[in-house]
Target: Autophagy-related protein 11-like
Amino acid sequence: MNCAHLENCLHEARKEAQTNLCAADRRASEYSALRASFLRLCGLFERFRNCALTQGGLIAFADAFCALAQSLANSINEKDDDVTIEFQKSIQILSDRVSFLSKHREELLEKYPKLEAANERLRKEVEEKEELVTTLYKKHQLEKQASKEKICFSRLEVHEIAAFVLNSAGHYEAINRNCSNYYLSAESVALFTYLLPIRPTYIVGQIVHIERQMVKPSSTRLEHPREDQADGPMSDTGTDRLTINVNPNLNPYGLPIGCEFFTVTVAMLPDTTIHSPTSS
Model:
């Protein structure tokens, strides 16, 4: 009875040992496969690392990456595990993307000088167009003002509306087709500019006084004119008469000797808009 029981126990122990041995062999085989896969992945990552650390810039990196992808594509084995195959496919996809980006970069580098030159031309054209638009805008504003307020561009007289433009010498000179040398008086300039940070490009106002003056040599001595002389002093009291002043030292506009000029005093118009040049 005891012998039979012992034989049964021995038989069960042998079966359990056989089962454990098979399980151990299977686990050893799986471990070997996992270790081999791990070593292959380590090798692949090492090759990828060496490729990423390639010196020589983007072009050298792209070439090395393409070479790695081609090498991995040629070494694909059906016995490789799924992880290794997926890694190799991922490297191939990355290689294609890197090649595309490298070619695109080369195309952009070729186009950049042309685009830069075109951009410079466009910038100059925009500056020229902007200057032209500014000039046309000023001209349009003057024409609009003239049309609205009937600015006088012929012979200037008291009560007429006149436009004065800032010239290169810094004086406000009247826009006049027939007569020249009509300048805005200092008092009128101060009236229109005392609240402005910079001087306006033009001034429009109603004439209240015109003073006629003559440029004469400083050495000339003048006698007090008689009242019955034709060119004697006449004070404008709100009519269209002129005041004659032959002060020999008065030549603020740099005119030649013997030249006649007029100093015009104006008043502001209702709802006058003073235009200042835009600061750049």
Summary: The chain has a mean pLDDT of 78. Residues 151-219+230-267 form one domain. The chain is about 50% helix and 15% strand.
